[in-house]
Amino acid sequence: xxxxxxxxxxxxxxxxxxxxxxxxxxxxxxxxxxxxxxxxxxxxxxxxxxxxxxxxxxxxxxxxxxxxxxxxxxxxxxxxxxxxxxxxxxxxxxxxxxxxxxxxxxxxxxxxxxxxxxxxxxxxxxxxxxxxxxxxxxxxxxxxxxxxxxxxxxxxxxxxxxxxxxxxxxxxxxxxxxxxxxxxxxxxxxxxxxxxxxxxxxxxxxxxxxxxxxxxxxxxxxxxxxxxxxxxxxxxxxxxxxxxxxxxxxxx
Length: 252
Ligand SMILES: *[C@@H]1O[C@H](CO)[C@@H](O)[C@H](O)[C@H]1NC(C)=O
Ligand SMILES: *[C@@H]1O[C@H](CO)[C@@H](O)[C@H](O)[C@H]1NC(C)=O
Ligand SMILES: *[C@@H]1O[C@H](CO)[C@@H](O)[C@H](O)[C@H]1NC(C)=O
Prior knowledge:
Elements: H1 2-14, E1 22-29, H2 34-40, E2 55-59, E3 70-77, E4 80-89, H3 98-102, E5 118-126, E6 129-139, H4 149-158, E7 167-172, E8 176-181, E9 184-193, E10 196-206, H5 210-223, H6 235-242
Parallel strand pairs: 1-5
Antiparallel strand pairs: 1-10, 2-3, 2-7, 3-4, 4-6, 5-6, 8-9, 9-10
One 2-acetamido-2-deoxy-beta-D-glucopyranose is lined by residues 180, 183, 185.
């Protein structure tokens, strides 16, 4: 643990571009539906989403891995199905895999080319919590196993996983809208689970301006009467709460 922490600290010390790391600012929204949010933001509430591809979350049933920040999902990108394994790390006690932290490309959104699988890391901010998350996405391309060896190794660096116990929760419709919020490009995303609309607004910002943008947009959303969730947390966590599960199903 200490070794990993030192690696994280040295990364920041060594990387002069540290302040240009991108942050993904997120607001978990509690309003009834996307049309209500669009209307409150002064947008055309009947506008079509730019993207509609559904998403399926995987976990044990009842869900156990999610509570430690480990997520499994199947989604569609440009018409192609892919599987994704994502892990959240607490940067103050970072146990993030070294290979990600050592990679100078870890600036938030860089896609490392020339690999069959896509590695992606972001700094996520929900409320006052900032965490570091990495994921491996891999096109299914007719493959029988949902999870590749690389994804399995990655997940198991965080926690041992009983892969055969993972079941799908979904299919959840997941429309997204592009918005312009106080001059910032934003995406509103709605995961539909039965009657629930788990909505989120995302704005990408450079780290050095992150706090200012976060405060600016939070104030604006308040002025517009947008109802934010009492607890600001990722959609997958909200989904499992919404369907009646909590941390009591945690395995470790
Ligand atoms: C709102 O969006 C709908 C659906 O795309 C469109 O038909 C309508 O013309 C738009 N209204 C305005 C005021 O832009
Ligand atoms: C957002 O809208 C404002 C005002 O219409 C415009 O000046 C600005 O360029 C837009 N920003 C983005 C990122 O689209
Ligand atoms: C947010 O920033 C915009 C653009 O700089 C500014 O016009 C607006 O007043 C700010 N809003 C708040 C609530 O700080």
